[in-house]
Amino acid sequence: MNSWLRNPAAALCVQSRELAFERQQQLTKPPGSLGRLEQLAIDFAGFQKTPTPELKYPVIRVFAADHGVVAEGVSAFPQEVTAQMIYNFVGGGAAITVLAKQHGADFAVINLGTVEPLGEMPKLVNIQIATGTENFCQGAAMSSEQMAVALEAGRNSCADQPVDCFIGGEMGIGNTTSAAAIFCALLGADVDDIVGRGTGVDDAGLQRKREAVQRGLDLHIDADTSHEEILRCLGGFEIAALVGAYIGHAQRGVPSLVDGYISTAAALLACRICPGVADWLLFSHCSAESAHALVLNAMQAQPLVNLDMRLGEGSGAGVALSLIQSSLLLHSKMATFAEAGVSES
Questions:
Q1: Dist CA 292 CA 300 (whole Å)
Q2: What percentage of the chain's residues is helix, strand, coil (to nearest 5)?
Q3: Domains of the chain (ranges plus CATH)?
């Protein structure tokens, strides 16, 4: 297994956080009146080791892969949609690509393994581990070797460039089923409380999905199952890549803005494998997908917004990136009471 997974995360700069807090008290506003925008600026001061942080190099990577558990009838969409959406991403027609352009973010799609083969295209990195994972109702979703490749793909997805905020998106028909199974395994939650409709399955599809998750849990999970084994048996290549990305960026001292239901499953795994990662995660929104609020509460995570989104792709994080940009601009550009000649209380 990848020996780097349990390397410690980078340390936050306590002094920069304290200086940022002091600056917030001096700006021309009542203390605390900008709410969580103030705390975001303080958090980024600790991330960037400066009392006046900036957002200059946001990076968005969408990890894509197919899932063998789709054979159990758990999705409302056919598997070829994964490849079709990848073409939409690189063509600029998806929600996350519109948001990436809005923010001037560096954007790319990393394909870990689709049923349909993909050609070479700009903004697409092809790492075809296999034509999707195996059906976890019948065996482990992936081998140890396959999982190692996916973890490394996430870790190295933007290692050779400047990054001051990382967003990981995902695409893979069937991946809400894998995410639900991971949540049940890690939190000991009941399948009926965690498994939702995903892309919109009907009542019969929801029942098949719940049965598939329960069969996967019964087959693979017991009290001694390690976190890596939970990922290997129940996860997807794109979920493993997200785990690797969250851990790798935390070790390099880069914060990640977590998107929705599937990304949160990867974030929870990353925190269980390497606990220091939690300091480097921000949660963008509460998804409308069933049980996301329950999971966020279990993680003691406070999402920035709740817009009833459930698209995935990293889209909720792309929207929340605007809040971070506003937070840092307010923190650095607002005048202090002394500078503005305004009397303090």
A1: 12
A2: 50, 10, 40
A3: 3-53+330-340 (1.10.1610.10), 60-326 (3.40.50.10210)
Q: 27-39 b/e with 16+ CB inside 10 Å = b? A: beeeeeebeebbb
**Catalytic hit among 18, 228, 313, 344:** 313
pLDDT digits (tens, 9 = 90+) for 185-241: 999 999 999 999 988 899 999 999 999 999 999 999 999 999 999 999 999 999 999
Question: What pLDDT score was predicted for residue 321?
Answer: 98
Q: Is 289 a catalytic residue?
A: no
Please tell me the predicted confidence (pLDDT) of residue 310: 94
Strands (E), the chain: 58-65, 106-113, 124-126, 165-171, 256-258, 281-283
166 has pLDDT over 70: yes
Residues 6+ apart with CB under 8 A from 239: 170, 175, 178, 179, 182, 231, 262, 265, 266, 269
The mean-pLDDT minimum among 40-44, 45-49, 99-103, 200-204 falls in: 200-204
* pLDDT tens-digit map of 13-29: 999 999 999 999 999 99
DSSP state of 249: H
